[in-house]
């Protein structure tokens, strides 16, 4: 253990740092508080000494009392970092009692490094908050390990957050630009970006401004960036924007923040213009607050002269989702918590053509209620011999094949309401509607039903009593009757609304 003296116990007087899922930071120790552990088969084997835990190739060094890292969370990290076969990831938890490191603590971590070096390991990722904080008068823990063990060590200079899906994000409030750093023996460290493993778009963010000409602030979040008005509070690790998992192939731009959604289309377009064209084409817009981004997305497409994909909600994972489960856009309610998941997850907005004609947004991801089988078209399911249901961005629409077909957009998306449209304006609605509607709402689940409003566009031929009884039976809290005509959405050949 003679080499460990070069690392020096107690280096780095940083405040508590952490990791987290769904935006909630968990204590992760740090350069001033790392975990206890034994090397795999070597080093301290005292009675009761905590083992080094191997979770699908990720090594976890912590004290017996440290419950900061549930195994399913570490397994997600393993699934993410498994993309880099030649790097061993070591997560360092809290020391015994949550205090600073002692000689035994450093000895256990040193024994693990000895073991890795003896097996021929050349590259290590040290998930230890602040371990890469390298300063002229205080060499970082990562630099000292790199020199002493002759390893390439990648370590963060700030707090590490474990994001849903397992990606590791460096976050810090004390200074901008926190990142992972690569330390090679005897060489100057190299900056490696905020995310590990690095997504394909990591370097593309270098061209994105920190503030737009109109005054909006562009914050770095795990999934990409968030654009917010300058007067709005910056994002914190316990905000939902930190719960959006990293898509390693596609950048996500969150527009607005809760209670701060006033972001103009030209501000969003300016941020996208800072990206290389290839990355810009793959970028998706998602609401950072409760605002429906459809109209903004159409305007951004016009400003860029290119298609733009708009997510209906914030892409989130279910708690305890199996590894590899893709996130689903989820709407956020007035209380700031996830509400319901729309059945049209995203649409592509195209720019107006040379004659000023605006294309109808094109649905990309559809998720009809999965209990319903049948239906001959994508996004459409047959409920009875007469009635079908089509998914819309705002919910669902019931229609008959011999009547007008509803479009894919529907009314404006409301995070508090799943709207089920019944018929088209003026269309006669007979009693055959009720069995179809009953079958549909039975399969929506209690939570969605509790947010459902029946939007009656047609004429109920037998009166409204039966519909009220059906709503009461299924726990549907609202019925809205649209008896007056409303302006139609622009046809494909029409321009944008003014």
Please give a structural write-up.
With 498 residues, the chain is an alpha/beta fold. The protein folds into three domains: 2-196, no CATH class; 204-366, no CATH class; 380-481, no CATH class. It has nine helices and 29 strands. The strands form seven sheets. The chain has a seven-stranded mixed sheet with strand order 3-4-5-6-7-10-11, sandwiched between helices. α4 crosses α6 and α7 (433-442) packs parallel to α9 (465-474). The longest helix has 16 residues, at 103-118.
Q: What are the defining features of this structure?
A:
498 residues; 3 domains; 7-stranded mixed beta sheet; 9 helices; 17% helix; disordered N terminus
Q: Secondary-structure map with pairings?
A:
Blueprint: E1 18-21, E2 24-27, E3 53-55, E4 58-61, H1 71-81, E5 88-92, H2 103-118, E6 123-127, H3 141-149, E7 152-156, E8 159-162, E9 168-171, E10 180-183, E11 190-191, E12 195-196, E13 217-221, E14 224-228, E15 252-255, H4 265-273, H5 277-282, E16 284-287, H6 294-304, E17 308-311, E18 314-316, E19 328-330, E20 344-349, E21 362-366, E22 380-382, E23 388-391, E24 395-399, E25 418-422, E26 428-429, H7 433-442, H8 446-449, E27 452-456, E28 459-460, H9 465-474, E29 478-481
Parallel strand pairs: 4-5, 5-6, 6-7, 14-15, 15-16, 16-17, 24-25, 25-27, 26-28, 27-29
Antiparallel strand pairs: 1-2, 3-4, 7-10, 8-9, 9-12, 10-11, 13-14, 17-20, 18-19, 20-21, 22-23, 23-24
Helix pairs in contact: 4-6, 7-9
